[in-house]
Amino acid sequence: MASIHKDILINAAPEAVWDAVRDVGKIHERLCPGFVVDTKLVDDGAARMVTFGNGMVVKEVIVDSDDARRRLVWTAQSERLTHHNGVMQVEDAGEGRTRAAWTADVLPHAAAQTVGPMMEMGLAAMKTRLEEQ
To answer: Which end of the chain has the lower number of beta carbons within 10 A, N or C?
Structure first.
């Protein structure tokens, strides 16, 4: 199993970043437009269908959303991945800035070659969007 860790510093308050991350049905508008082009809540809000800018569609089941720890956990189901566990943690970086840390554990191991660069693109889109506000 590959474990991928990426993070980025965002010039926005952690409360604002967390508010966008936790809005799991609006990530295509509030969090990373362009990287994600559509999000639809399914299964009574327990999951979301995410359409990425590259056309890939993935069902993500929301495992946990922890406001106190500013931590979102999800699993993904797709043709390419037999296992995917994602975690986004929002941390106060001081001076009104935020460190967004994204971890993904994936199988097959080779999927890391695709997932890692996608995570980098997603974080860059987050930074751009959240620093606009």
So the answer is: C
